[in-house]
Amino acid sequence: MTLAPGRHAALTVIDVATGACEVVLRTDRHVEAPNWSRDGHWLVVNCDGELYRLPAPGAGPAVLERIVTTGLPPVNNDHVLAPDGTTIYVSGRDGHLYAVPWTGGTGRRIGNGQPEARRFKHYLHGISADGRTLSYVGGGLDAAGRWVTNVYTVPAAGGPDRQLTDDPFPDDGAELAPDGSVWFNSERASPGHAQLFRWAGGAVEQVTDDERVNWFPHVSPDGRWVVYLSYPPGTAGHPADLDVLLRLVPADRSAPPRDLVGLRGGQGTTNVNGWAPDSRRFAFVAYPL
Organism's domain of life (predicted)? Predict the structure, then answer.
């Protein structure tokens, strides 16, 4: 993908308590979807179908370093980091999940046995606190030939999927929280109008209910906070290049959401969890003029 004419990518870190923003990197390359390594030293992004890392603020010069891989298709902006720092898990543009060594090397496909007739695709969004389970949104054809998406988990080492939801409404952004619940966005409450939901123990509860279109909930490492991407009312899907908000809400919903920052962005801004290990800072990408 390329940036809209006249725009650049600004990889930014915000202090969620003070609202202070620091632009870590400005580039005319289309970087997307930052993760923060658990040791706090690195940010990982995707760009041009490949993975890159760069030092986190205060850890060194902000220079993109490609993570050289083999046996891996071009990747999209769905990637998560193993808590032990050894592995990056990614969604390939071929629709499959892969594990890649942190140092680079050969990618390993994570098999799960979905029938080929479903044309099943995986959109990775989360990893459990112990690193043993991945959460993703799976899309495939149902018996009537209709495209449906639902929330799944799969062992990070590979193995049988576990389907957590089973409904005809579009779902996305399925992310595992430290307590084992899964946060995601869905149109199940109002078709065409995505809101945030939480799956826990088989029950699904709605978290947001407002006029804006809400996507990609990201739970902080300490489990206290959720940052999410909020689009203007009436937005269809999760497009790029719109005026959007990053909002913050307590994970226990003890207070209403509040705006963290407004920016030009959308797709690519925060498709995956950008929380720092300290649960104080959050990384995202804006695409300003």
Answer: Bacteria
**Angstrom distance (rounded) from CA 174 to CA 48:** 24
Q: Of 46, 19, 20, 43, which is closest to residue 33 (Cα–Cα)?
A: 46
The domains of the chain, with CATH numbers, are 71-265 (2.120.10.30)
Tell me the CB-side half-sphere exposure of residue 52, using CA atoms within 13 A. Answer: 21
pTM, rounded to two decimals: 0.95
Instruction: Report how far residue 34's alpha carbon sits from residue 46's, in angstroms, rounded to the nearest whole number.
Output: 8
Q: How many Cα atoms are found within 13 Å in the side-chain-facing hemisphere of 221?
A: 18
DSSP state of 275: B
Kindly report, residue by residue over 41-57, the tens digit of the pLDDT: 999 999 999 999 999 99
At a CB cut-off of 8 Å and minimum separation 6, what does 14 contact?
Answer: 20, 21, 22, 246, 260, 261, 281, 282, 284
Other CB atoms closer than 10 Å to residue 25's CB: what's the count? Answer: 21
Q: What gap in Å lies between CA 40 and CA 37, rounded to an integer? A: 5
Give the whole-angstrom CA distance, residue 229 versus residue 207. Answer: 14
